[in-house]
Amino acid sequence: MELEERSKLDRLTGLYNKATCEDMIRASLHKAKENESFALMLIDADKFKNINDTYGHTTGDKVLEQIGSVIRDTFKGMDICGRFGGDEFLVLMKKVISRDNVVTLGEELRSALKERIKGEVYAKEVSLSIGAALFPDHGKTFLEILGSADKALYYVKDHGRDGLHIYDS
User: pTM to 2 decimals?
Assistant: First the structure.
């Protein structure tokens, strides 16, 4: 049972791995009731390649571990948190009350990471870009909501990085 549980986790961050995260999110969206609303956050470590190139992959791994830790601390309980690949992370926030709730938790995540890495030699170079989409407004399936969150993420990246944007058609 322990081996099965470990196979669902990303070794570096302790978050769910991509396959497990996707499966859990798909199941949650499929089971959603009409009045339920969720938010999907797609989180990207800005300029992560520069961290690896400048400080080495061991430091890059440490940054990913710190991001994973901050995500775990920020999103507790019923939310689904996973490493989507490389330097990208996914969070499905359940029981979303409002857009403001999504913004507040996203900003809390960004601030918590900055606080966690304060004093590290790479602290000024690490930031997060976050794109978010709301279910069912911005998609009713995993791929639809992921596509909307991805567009919101690229909006942040195209407008200077280190921020959060909720999808807006």
Answer: 0.94
Start-to-end CA span in the chain (Å): 44
pLDDT digits (tens, 9 = 90+) for 27-48: 999 999 878 899 999 999 999 9
Tell me how crowded residue 58 is: count the other CB atoms within 10 A of its CB: 8
Reply yes or no on whether 79 is catalytic.
no
Token pair belonging to 9: 């986790």
Instruction: Give the relative orientation of helices 142-158 and 18-31 as an angle to the nearest 10 degrees.
Output: 120
The burial of 151, by beta-carbon neighbours within 10 Å (0-12 exposed, 13-18 middle, 19 or more buried), is given as middle
How many residues does the structure list for the chain? 169
Instruction: Using DSSP, state whether 42 is helix, strand or coil.
Output: strand
Low-confidence ranges of the chain (pLDDT < 70): 1
Q: Which of 87, 158, 162, 168 is catalytic?
A: 87
User: What gap in Å lies between CA 143 and CA 26, rounded to an integer?
Assistant: 9
Q: Give the integer Cα–Cα distance in Å for 128 and 112.
A: 11
